[in-house]
Amino acid sequence: MLCLSSLQGDSHLKQLKMTIGEICSRVNGNLVIGKEKVSHEIEFAFASDLMSDVLTVKCDNLLLITGLANLQTIRTAEMSDAGCILIVRDKSVSDEMQKLASESGIPLITCCTTMFRAAGELYRAGLKPVF
Amino acid sequence: MAMSFEYKVEGGDFTHAGYASSQVKKMLKQLGVDNNIIKRVVVCLYEAEVNIVAHAWRGVILINLDSERINMKLTDEGPGIADISLAMQKGYSTASPQVREMGFGAGMGLPNISTNADRFEIASEPGVGTTLEISILLNSRAV
Fold it and tell me: Which of these, A46, B28, B129, B142, has the minimum number of CB atoms within 10 Å of its CB?
């Protein structure tokens, strides 16, 4: 489904896709699950700790940036067809989360930065908002 | 092609919440259903499944599928909904703090189901339980 980056201030953004490896590098993150997908490309990102909000996004293959670290984070990403999950604020991911992410084929990155900083760095690097 | 599946859901069991939705998603992918339609189906089903876990004591999900549509009936035993029109309003929720900690309970679930479904009916009896009936055409255009 089409995602539109419609904010006037986004017009400077290039039509750029980032690989999961580049996303991981930008936030100094750790690719916990999905090393085989390090070259997979992502174009859009959505940041929220509220899974109900994530489920309203009609964009596929996006990066989900969240500080919520539980099994429903992975389930929500699975139902939303998210292409990758970035867990911020140095939250630990359980073995069960890693197992479910692996089974669902969703790469999982952790990083120590705040959500604001992670989103800012990735926006500056060219990842686009979904609206 | 006509298939039926049934899943049991336990209230409060957030460890397994979403299992039925995940199984249905895999099945629809195997059947080659359009990805946008699969997403609408599983978003509806997952929201409804989480609602049972979050609010009810237990529930049953019945899936009926043919070449034209998928019908999902979710029947729970639980406190029910006293005012359905209020529950359908975005932002209204009676979810517990524990449910909110899981990332839900923002009052988005039922409106989101309504947005994604081709047919959505809800009936409830306070103190007894709630039944949701959701249908999505498998060959329709995405919302």
Answer: B142
CA distances from A62 to A67, A127, B142 (A): 16, 10, 18
pLDDT tens, position by position, B37-74: 999 999 999 999 999 999 999 999 999 999 999 999 99
Distance CA B125, CA B123 (A): 7
The model's pTM is 0.91
Which residues of chain B make contact with A56, given a CB cutoff of 8 A?
108, 112, 115
pLDDT tens for A9-64 read: 555 556 589 999 999 999 999 999 999 999 999 999 999 999 999 999 999 899 99
SS3 (DSSP) at A74: helix
Each residue of A89-125: pLDDT tens digit? 999 999 999 999 999 999 999 999 999 999 999 999 9
| Residue A3 belongs to a domain | no
Of B25, B35, B103, the CB nearest to A50: B103
Q: Could you report the predicted ipTM of this complex, rounded to two decimals?
A: 0.91
Contact indicator for A127, A63 with CB cutoff of 8 Å:
yes
Give the domain CATH number at A89.
3.40.1390.20
| Domain membership flag for residue A101 | yes
SS3 call for A113: coil
Separation between Cα atoms, residue B107 and residue B66, nearest integer Å: 32
For B101, name the nearest residue in chain A, comparing CA atoms only.
A68
In this complex, do B42 and A52 lie within 8 Å of one another by their Cβ atoms?
Answer: no
Q: How far is CA A14 from CA A11, A19, A120, B10, in A?
A: 8, 15, 16, 47
Residue A59 in tokens:
């964009």
Structural domain count of chain A: 1
End-to-end alpha-carbon separation of chain B, Å?
25
A79 touches chain B (CB under 8 A): yes
Expressed as residue numbers, the domain containing A83 is 8-129
